[in-house]
Design a protein that fits this description.
By secondary structure, the protein is an alpha+beta fold. Helices cover 24% and strands 21% of the residues. The chain is built from two helices and six strands; from the N terminus they run ββββββαα. The chain has helices at 67-70, 72-96, and strands spanning 2-5, 12-18, 21-25, 38-40, 44-46, 53-55. The strands form two sheets. It has a four-stranded antiparallel beta sheet with strand order 3-2-1-4, with no helix packed on it. It is elongated and about 105 Å long.
Amino acid sequence: QAFVDMLNPKRMAIVFASGSERYLLIPAELDESHVAIFAPLDFSEQDGDAPWRICKGSGLPQLPEDPCKRDPSKMMILTASALAASVALAVGALAWNFRSSLYLCIVKQPTQPTGPPSRRC
């Protein structure tokens, strides 16, 4: 019996029986690591113009339309407003703490600590 890979219909396999054991023989030129779902050829059918096959009589519903393809401008408005809000929040935090005594610095190499200048009385 012929078997077909549901994900790539170009790949075929057959069942080989030896005594009470049965083996699925696949072509040797396939990559060692790949995903395949083999099903009997008689029980599968092409899924419209998709590159894969489905089980006969499965009656799968159509995939929903991608909302970004319908009106991408709405998604871009949400993204732009989220970006503007995060930038405004960062600028607001910096402005709020502008006069604080905390400073940010980048340390590039270790230095010997120095204390306050000594005074002689």
